[in-house]
Amino acid sequence: MRRVLVAWSVCLVTIGAAALPAVAEDVEVHPSWDNMPGVPVIQRVLDVIAQAGLASSVGSLLVGGGMLGLGRITGSMGSGNRAAGYILGGGGGAFVIAVGAKIVTWLIAPSTVHAT
């Protein structure tokens, strides 16, 4: 009995969801930071976090390079593998931080073109 009740509930919700676009009016959304309080503080916090992330990525690159050199001198294969992970992780982190803001701006740009 419970399965039949669940099946009927799903059917009714599906029919309601299918009929909803026919009844709903057009809704326009224009995301903006213009009237939000504290925007300069949020921007400053984001800048500091991005700078700390870039510094840690550069640190990871330097540590990985040092470990790679030390691993080559001593002949340690494990050190070389771990160093490669540090180097790739640092480079990937720096790339994500540097390109992340551009990607978000690119994704938001189409919605700001239609703003009135």
- List low-confidence stretches: none
Topology pattern, helix = H, strand = E:
HHH
Helical percentage = over 70%
- Structural class of the secondary elements? mainly alpha
Characterization of the model:
α2 packs antiparallel against α3. This protein starts with a helix and ends with a helix. It has helices at 2-23, 39-74, 77-113. It is mainly alpha-helical and 116 residues long.
Salient structural properties:
single chain, 116 residues, mainly alpha, transmembrane helix, TrbC/VIRB2 family protein, transmembrane
Brief summary:
The chain is mainly α. Helices cover 82% and strands 0% of the residues. Helix 2 packs antiparallel against helix 3.
Task: Draw up the topology in text.
Blueprint: H1 2-23, H2 39-74, H3 77-113
Helix pairs in contact: 2-3
Signal peptide: 1-24
Keywords: Membrane, Signal, Transmembrane, Transmembrane helix
Transmembrane segments: 48-71, 83-109
